[in-house]
Amino acid sequence: MGVGDSSYKVITPKPNPDVAGNITGVVNVNPGQNNLLYTVSPIANASKYLWTLPDGYNGSSDSNSILINIGSNAQSGIIKVKGSNDCNYGQESSINITVNNGMWQNTNLIPFDPNNPDNIIISKSASNILVWDYNYSQLYLSTNSGEEWHSINHLGQDCVSEAMIDSIIYIVVNNNISTNIYQSTDLGINWTLLNNGIDTLNYTRLLGGEGKIMASNNYQLYLLNKNDTIWKNITNGLPSNSYIYPLAIDGNNLYVITNNDQFYKSSDNGLTWILINTGLTNVYINSLAINGGKLYIGTNIGVYLSIDGGINWNPLNNGLTNLSISTIAIYNNKLFIGSYTGVNMSIDNGNTWFPINDGLNSLDIYKLTVVDSNIFAVTYDGLWKRKLSGFAFIQGNDNNIQGLTSVCKNQQNVIYSINPIPNANSYTWILPNGYNGSSTTNSISINFDTNAVSGSITVKKTGDSIYYTLAITVNKIPIIDTTYNNVFNSGTSVIGNTVNSIAINSQNNVWYGCYYGLYQELSNYQPSNYSTYINNMNDRRINTIIFDNNNNLWLGTPNGLLEFTDNYSLTYNITNSGLAGNYITSLFFENTNVLWMGTNNGFSKFDGINFTNYLIPGGVNNTVYTIAKDLQNNLWIGTDYGLIKYDGINYTTYTKNNSSLSDNKINDIKIDYQNRI
After folding, report:
1. What pLDDT is attached to residue 326?
2. What is the arithmetic mean of pLDDT over 644-671?
3. Model confidence over 371-401: pLDDT tens digits?
4. Taking Cα atoms as reference points, which of 51, 40, 46 lies closest to residue 87?
5. Whole-structure pTM over 0.70, yes or no?
6. Is the distance from CB of 65 to CB of 37 less than 8 angstroms?
7. What is the SS3 assignment for 389?
8. Of 212, 390, 393, 659, which is the most exposed, with the fewest CB atoms less than 10 Å away?
9. How far is Cα 141 from Cα 212, in angstroms, rounded to an integer?
10. If DSSP codes are grouped into helix, strand and coil, which group holds residue 628?
11. What domains can be seen in the chain, in order of their start residue?
């Protein structure tokens, strides 16, 4: 090359990658879902693609598509992507992902053993969970609500029962020579023998809670307070020679059942016991849950509720297809029950139920327990977990269900719909018993049959954990009684007819309930001017009559309760309405809309929609002749065996033996404005 020669190379800079386009893929996912494909259109001037994933989202790719696995602990987040080349990065795009944490996940803690599927014991205290696996003789502990587990020392022996109080662990172990109870205050590192006070340890069962623990061994029951070292025998008052099974501890209240299907409660830490299964005939109680003074039991014939400490029980089985309830749990006023057909949940205190089995491999549920915001299920396929924070129940917004909220029994073809839910390919409608309809779209036609009761209609996007609900009031069927307005024997006098009850309506007309029918004095109180109203019943006897604030007439008869309005009459009895008894002896209105009635089988309260029944414990019979309420809201009840005061929880009986009463049979009660009875 000579002087003055030169050479050069022209360099052209590469342009930056273009802006990334929209990412396509599933936006609503569940923990544990795998191989979810996300794609972005090819980006101009990009030789590689950089994907950014939230924690718990697993996947890798440098192309314009990626397969992602959603981890069990993944939360909702944002997937991002941008193009790159040797010189620079382009502008990214993103897609928001919602993780539905409401699906069941296998903890993979307990290996499945088809020969012994139910040999798992689980107990909890605060955020601690203790699990014993019979099949593989392992004791597991989690101190963070089931996020992490580790095996702890169980002395190399078979653990036949276990329990926890705060961070103290109690276990019953059997080494084929003897059975012993041990306590650990350091989460299973060291153990202390804890047998003092217990005579025999065979078949010992433990149950802990509220700073104390119960232990039963066949025919004996013991109590131990936290930090104590000597067990106290609290069997006195329970049936002798009967197996005892601890159910629950709630403050000073202890609950147990015996092998003769008797349900007992102690309100003084076991000093005394009372029987609380009045009305529960041939019922075996499998589980008990307590929420704000309400007792919920899971039995072989369904779910029952008591609001008065176990004196009276009412069924809560609307919407349940399987009534053999093995376990029951509560979280934030939501009820959960398990049976051999899966897990059901109620958001309205047990009035309606719907299944929540998404993700479960086995529907045989042996035990449910709630820890923090997680529910654990012991199943035929091991221990499963579901995040309760993944549930959402939406009411009253633009996406709420539209349709009638007040219907009648036998009303047909009532349409309900919801605005389309984004990305929903199918809808799941959940209906209470007596609501008949089926749909996988965002609308449904429902027929309400004669057994329908008030409840909630629920819908969700199939596979999702966001539920939309609408409360429905089901009104009684108007039964038109054509004989109500007919006048019979207009010249007949009430004289000579047995008068059982008298009432005056808002027009100051006097009405008489008589042995042979219902009479009205039409004007001026002239005894010769009466009309007789006969209803369709074979037995025309009227035991008691009363008017409500709307001037509707209510009749108590030997065949049920009758309501008369200007247009129709309604009949209520034990068959169609759940009355305590058909023979109505007395009627009493509390305030303006709550009707109390005495019957031949206890007494009932009617709020215009539902009946609540009460049986008097310890009575020779449960015939109630009269009922009234004093200024302190105590009910006073007249019976064959005395005057009874009911304060909503306790019954107090006054007789001629313990009071100044001259006779035990009480036919009528009146209370004046000074609260004198």
Report:
1. 94
2. 87
3. 887 899 988 888 888 888 656 666 544 457 8
4. 46
5. no
6. yes
7. helix
8. 659
9. 20
10. strand
11. 23-99 (2.60.40.10), 287-390 (2.120.10.30), 392-475 (2.60.40.1080)
